[in-house]
Amino acid sequence: MTGLLAILFFAWMIGAALLAIRQPDLLQSALGLSLLSLGAVGQFFLLHAPDVALTEAAIGAAASSFVMLMGVRQLGRTERKDLQ
User: How far is CA 40 from CA 1, 22, 26, 56, 72, in A?
Assistant: First the structure.
């Protein structure tokens, strides 16, 4: 059962990473990175490291998400393609 949960969390993390990379909307990219952090929290709990999981939840999922959302608020939701 633990192996199945690990595979599901890995699939979740891969899906979240693809969401973060492929989206032109920066808000959805920030959401993808937050989901990636939540998948890492699940993996850490499966690996019997609750202290690392709680730290990842507090810093990775909560604080980093807040910083990314404030950055999206300041910069706007869409990427500008004309700068390249």
Answer: 18, 20, 21, 8, 23
For residues 35 and 62, give the distance between their C-alpha atoms in angstroms, rounded to a whole number. 11
pLDDT at 24 (0 to 100): 87
User: What are the DSSP E strand ranges found in 1-84?
Assistant: none
What is the token pair recorded at 42?
Answer: 């699940």
How many whole angstroms separate alpha carbon 61 and alpha carbon 55? 9
Q: Is 28 exposed, middle or buried (0-12, 13-18, 19+ CB in 10 A)?
A: middle
Q: What is the pLDDT of residues 21-55, one digit of tens each?
A: 998 889 999 999 999 999 999 999 999 999 999 99
